[in-house]
Amino acid sequence: QQTMLRASPGRLRGLRMLSLGGQKRVQEVGGSGGRKFAVVQPAEVVATARPVPSHIPRPHYVRNSGGSVRLARPTLKSGSDLAALRRACRLARAVLDFAGELVQPGLTTEELDRQVHERIVQSGAYPSPLHYLGFPKACCTSVNNVVCHGIPDLRPLREGDIVNVDVSVFLDGFHGDNSQTFLVGRVDAAGSRLVRTANACLAAAIAECGPRTPLRAIGKRIEQLARQEGFSVCREFIGHGIGQEFHEPPDILHFANLQPGRMQPGMTFTIEPALNEGSPAMRVLADNWTAVTEDALRSAQCEHTILITEHGAEILTEL
User: HSE-up of 7 (CA within 13 Å, CB side)?
Assistant: First the structure.
């Protein structure tokens, strides 16, 4: 799950608490240039949060629907801490793969969230997004023109949709985080190419990573490849360090930038570019979570958690 970039001092904040006054979904067929997809807005959200068994350890923010403690510097992982983080990341990936197998026309994202929630707690873990700054669900589901932080709801997925599922888990005191955009049935060529390019950008960014590499190399490579393929990069949402806190330093920008700092062995962070078909502009809807493209064209995102090693980078959310 991403943090949001702002121009204000400190630049980062988590998104605010959801208002559960459900909004009616507007279903339209939108697009141009041969595109065919449904433009979506928030639908009815089941307001009751699913329970987590009492024996499962919770992140600290669950007590007051708060967010991560902002650390002064990245934490370098090794030994037992790194082993625990690996376990969390492996579980996050296994649950994401499970979610991908569920995706099909007719499935509601509410039902997908229910099954993801059950799989996580059955594994002895806590779904990291649940009650993070008030978020009401176990995962984020972002369909078509929703960039990220979509709240699972009662709208059935439709043939031709694309849906990002963002799965994060808290296990053995550490968070693991990953996401993927899945095709729902047969998707038009433009939508399929958007998803392929998002994955290519993630792979290219990871290939840039290694000890002493400037952090800004990630965003430069992503934006270069995205523009080459005719897509824009959403600039408001960024990757983040991860460990005992859900969101830690360093900040990972997905566009060309002048960010200072270099990667160090033991750093762990997410890379999670969101590519848009049209403009990079986005807006956050009244629920204070759902981010949609300003022009109502589609967005696709993918994410891994990686570890910087002495010789390069290791993908922790890869089985």
Answer: 0
